[in-house]
Amino acid sequence: MNKPVIVALDFADDFECINFLNQFPKEEKLFLKIGLEMFCQFGYPFVRSLRERGYNIFLDLKLHDIPNTVRRTCEMIAKWDVQMLTVHASGGAEMISAAKEGLKGSSTELLAVTQLTSLGQDELANELQVPLKSQDYVTHLAKLAFDNGADGVISSALEVPMIKEITSDEFLCVTPGIRPKSAQVGDQKRVATPSRARELGSDAIVVGRPITQAKDGHEAYTNIFKEWNK
Ligand SMILES: O=c1ccn([C@@H]2O[C@H](COP(=O)(O)O)[C@@H](O)[C@H]2O)c(=O)[nH]1
Fold it and tell me: Could you tell me which of 12, 27, 157, 193 has the fewest CB atoms within 10 Å of its CB?
């Protein structure tokens, strides 16, 4: 079965976003990521309208707060029928299990963000003063997420084999920081091509600008989808 390319809808306005989506044939059942940029502008009505059009939704809110606040927020989101939701794994064990508890009764999968793919070893050591190798920090947070009920993690594709080894094959590894050979890397630090992500065992890839800022978004999506599902 084909694995999803999750398209990150990071647009400044909803008109631009709908124009982008209209390039795709109706039968193409896209998996869309709504992040902070669009959610802060358009909120739940936007999520609902995309669900009503039949899209799968990854709500990338990266919640990071005290356990009680995260649980109550997740109880609300549990009613929204979205497929995936993120919290930061660095919020800790109690926060992760509170998020899972909040989502109880829904089919929303809880994903914990490990180390953002925009952070490399230098930023980890010098800015955040984390005295671990990046891959050890990522696997530590992944294990914390696994032990506390998350369904998977967000990491770069580069860490997927190590994460699967210390958790389980079923533990989802959803990987942004995807760049086809021809694309600009931009602010991402830990990157992989779609084919490398497949070889490393990612369960889904998240791709934004290489698709949304391409001249022909549909063509860019199709090429990435083919490389990923070869
Ligand atoms: O570690 C993370 C967590 C989330 N993201 C999100 O994925 C997309 C990537 O977009 P590109 O344009 O392909 O770089 C974006 O919405 C991020 O918020 C991430 O990149 N890294």
Answer: 27
